[in-house]
Amino acid sequence: MKDDRAERNGTVSFDQLDEDHYCCVRVGRDLTHRAYEHLKAGRSPPLMGREQEIRDLLALLSRPGMRNIMILGPSGCGKTALAEGLAWKIASGTVPPALRRTRIISTSFGNIWSYTGDSDNWAAYLKNLGKVVEECTKLPAILFMDEIHLIFGHRYSIQYLLPRLSEGELTIVGATTNAEYLRSIEPYPAVARRFHLYHIKEPPPEAVVQMILKRIKHIWPWPGWHKPPLSPAVARFLVNLSDTYMPFAHHPAKAFQLLDQVVARKAMAEDQNPIDKQDIRMAVASALGIPIETITAPALQLRAMENVLNAHILGQQEAIGRLCRRLLIARAGTTVHGDRPQGVFLLAGPTGVGKTELAKALAAYLNGSDRDLVRLDMATYATEGSIYALLGTPMASSNEDPTVPVFTRMIKEHPYGVLLLDEVEKAHRSVMLLFLHAFDTGRMVDILGNIIDLRQMTILMTTNVGFSARQPVIPTPGLSAEEQSRQEEAATLKMIREHFPPEFLGRVDEILCFRPLTRQVMKGFIGQKIRRLEQATGKRIHLEEAAMSFLCEKAFHPDYGARDLNRAMDSLLGHPLALLKFENEEAWERIAALRVHLAPSGQALTVSVMKKKRGPKRRRRWQGGEPPT
């Protein structure tokens, strides 16, 4: 029934569909009727910042032929919102005359299939699909199919819809991603050529800010919802923070998800105060599972990082200092490199000096756990064909459903962690050159077209080049220990430049040379292991100096660094502790402290219980009554 007042105001009346169109009602949504109801209620349109895209789609739908449109874009960029924006334009009457009475019916493969009531009844599915098409043709209506690749991915749907598309009986606007289109629709040229491809991108940050301000002011899908005030500066901070810590998602969806989480947290706390930056930081930390200190005080965290890493990795103060300075520059944004990873470092040194341990310690410090360390053993990529193990293999056929490549999955799970390329010199040259583009732009593309974002990653590469086959440098008479170390470092850098190509080294921010361990440094590592053993056993362990020297002598080897330390401590100290525990477990529970000393033979360690020292007997003070005896 027409609304004359609406006609005079420019809007077009779109009443709810009756039972004559029961299939569209049950398996679809009338977007134009919904927009018309919101217009009558005086609500604002849901779409903002997409005016040019709406005009383009209206122009395509107004053509006499080939009116079918395929909207392509990444997930979360607003493809479905464009259909809602079209419905709003039609309901408001600001469209060409040919579209003024056209409805937009939204449906999907899941809606139609669920209405069949039988998971294997393709005949019922095609029957329902046919009813939807017939009703849309009579209305008239434009059929909007979200995730259209699911419908055209089945030959039954193609065989039914293709004649309707060819004869122009039906107008379809579909939405899908580029990867799904290439996999499910493009292999069928008869279907692909009947759609006009329309690509959309993420809206610019300022447009997202305006969308957020409008969303927080007019949240029309949820009447009466908690609506705390939000300033433009805080909205801009939300957009920037989501770009930094959520590079795997796309605007405006990720900004809206973060905003909804902030609003929900304030609603649960019954907080009516305006949204501030701390609310957004806490929401990001909660959503991503990272320490709040990483977001709230990055400058203080980075300044303290050098001391923490030096306490964990002993004897490598210079390398750690250069690493921390470079990361401080990257996090502060005072670098001229632009969009690159946070840092690309080549850690060179002999085995067992702490290169891999530094990567673990850095990941634990930046993200609260070393589980955010993405580690690739480059020795497993020694052949040319191993590149497919990283970025996926080509699809054998168009109907194959490939799994997400392992490297893509690892980076998406930890987009702000530490990437360790262990023993990079053992990888094939083609695999090494694969990372050159990532070192420059911070991005890679896998075989499925997925973009791997490495801009928030810190990339560490380890190598033994210059140490594994190098003869010891003969000390030059008259040189100090520091000068001798510089001479060895220069020899190492020379061998590294001979082994790696210039285009590879030119993209490395720092080459950090690790120094061989000394006996004094080894004693420091033994002290660390003792403290870990104390935490594991719950006992205080006192290691005598003679026992410390004996452990250091057995664990230290100039060619293996600290590799033998764990094995030596397990055999020399762990075994006596295990014997003491299982001799009498009840007595073990009462032990508070243990002493480790060198056996009389000088070839083993013995463990004894430290008895609590008794102090002088204290006399009780007489407070009246019978005097103490």
TrEMBL record:
Organism: Desulfacinum infernum
Annotated ranges, domain Clp ATPase C-terminal: 517-600
Gene3D superfamilies: 1.10.8.60, P-loop containing nucleotide triphosphate hydrolases (3.40.50.300)
Protein name stated in the entry: ATP-dependent Clp protease ATP-binding subunit
Biological processes per GO annotation: cellular response to heat; proteolysis
Any Pfam family hit: AAA_lid_9
GO MF annotations in UniProt: ATP binding; ATP hydrolysis activity; peptidase activity
InterPro entries reported for this sequence: AAA+_ATPase (IPR003593), ATPase_AAA_core (IPR003959), Clp_ATPase_C (IPR019489), ClpA/B (IPR001270), ClpA/ClpB_AAA_lid (IPR041546), ClpA_ClpB (IPR050130), P-loop_NTPase (IPR027417)
Keywords: ATP-binding, Chaperone, Hydrolase, Nucleotide-binding, Protease, Repeat
Domain of life of the organism encoding this protein: Bacteria
Classification via SMART domains: AAA, ClpB_D2-small
CDD domains the record matches: AAA, RecA-like_ClpB_Hsp104-like
Domain AAA+ ATPase: 65-203, 341-458
SUPFAM superfamilies to which the protein is assigned, alphabetical: P-loop containing nucleoside triphosphate hydrolases
GO cellular component terms attached to this protein's record: cytoplasm
